[in-house]
Design brief:
The chain is an alpha/beta fold. Helices cover 43% and strands 20% of the residues. The chain has 2 domains: 148 residues, Response regulator (Rossmann fold), CATH 3.40.50.2300; 169 residues, Rossmann fold. The chain contains 11 helices and 15 strands. The two termini are 19 Å apart.
């Protein structure tokens, strides 16, 4: 169950002048490559992981600077992108919170000749070098199928979504509905309400849904912060034993809740590696490499029994994700410190 994402004003962490670096051995000067990164609010752990991964890769490379602007408002994200265009950065990457609001800024970057890479959720206008993300429709279907199976194909469920203008959120919802309907299921989606990805708003929304639907058996909070807000409402109602709760992202707090058998299921994203992948792709683009329109990022669905089995050495995540999954579960078990 997910999140306590707080809507924040646009925060430009760093927009600097062109920096030149000199090699002591060769005496040559090379321009530092500047990459603009526009994200939703960094109070969301999964979003902040993209930033951390990108910055870590830039630091490792030495000649790359990642500049970050973050907001849960589409118009502020557009302003952040326009600031990067004015600063003449080399590449811009972004995760759109509002596809329509950010689209014109993508077009401005295109006109300025700045390569644009979409991350997680992209605008509905403009040209992109590639789009790096999980298959969110598939993620939603994973969650829907899990709930369908867990409820044996019957019951009433609710969805607390994020922002209806968010393209990734719409894909998650579509996939979730598909998963719920598999196998001739008789499950009914009785309530859908937006939260703007805000945990406090999710608490209020979930409280209203629980009041209106005393016969609810399942609840999906579209990300872990939203799900954790819904968990507060479910626990306050005394119905935690009768309602299955799912989230999405795999934040440490969510994984900790899963290990305690409070949150029942989430889909883990791997956003630090995605941040690294974004920086590497940016550099390759500047060297002329061509990318497919969509570059898929990995995910892993996990429930309480699987999480505990992995920690006990009785189960494993897919080989490429094993170390990361186990490390994150160990951190969650230790209290996320």
């Amino acid at each position: 169950m997910k999140k306590w994402a707080i809507s924040v004003a646009l925060a430009v962490v760093a927009i600097g002048a062109v920096v030149a670096t000199t090699s002591a051995s060769s005496g040559k000067t090379s321009k530092k490559i500047r990459i603009g990164l526009v994200l939703p609010a960094l109070s969301n752990e999964a979003i902040n992981d993209v930033k951390l991964g990108a910055e870590a890769r830039a630091k490792q490379l030495g000649n790359v600077q990642v500049l970050v602007a973050a907001s849960y408002k589409g118009e502020d994200q557009a302003k952040g992108m326009e600031n990067f265009i004015a600063a003449k950065v080399d590449v811009i990457g972004y995760d759109s919170i509002d596809a329509a609001a950010v689209g014109p800024a993508v077009q401005k970057a295109n006109a300025a000749g700045i390569p644009v890479i979409g991350l997680i959720s992209k605008a509905d206008k403009g040209k992109h070098v590639t789009f790096i993300a999980a298959d969110f429709r598939q993620d939603g279907e994973i969650i829907g199928r899990w709930m369908n199976k867990s409820l044996h194909g019957k019951g009433n469920v609710a969805l607390a979504e994020g922002n209806p203008a968010d393209a990734a959120g719409q894909q998650l919802k579509s996939g979730f509905k598909t998963g719920l309907a598999v196998g001739g299921s008789k499950i009914k989606l009785v309530a859908v309400a937006p939260t703007n990805w805000d945990r406090v708003k999710a608490l209020s929304v979930a409280t209203d849904i629980l009041t209106a639907h005393p016969d609810l058996q399942g609840f999906y909070g579209m990300n872990d912060d939203v799900a954790l807000g819904a968990l507060q409402a479910i626990e306050s109602s005394g119905r935690e034993a009768s309602i299955l709760l799912a989230g999405h992202n795999g934040t440490c707090e969510a994984l900790s809740s899963i290990l305690k058998a409070k949150l029942d299921f989430t889909v883990m994203l791997f956003n630090k590696p995605l941040g690294v992948q974004f920086v590497d792709a940016s550099l390759q683009v500047l060297k002329g490499k061509k990318f497919p329109a969509f570059t898929k990022a990995p995910v892993f669905g996990i429930d309480t029994s699987t999480a505990k089995a992995i920690l006990e050495g009785k189960a494993k995540a897919p080989a490429a994700l094993q170390a990361d999954v186990k490390s994150r579960l160990q951190k969650a078990k230790a209290g996320c410190k």
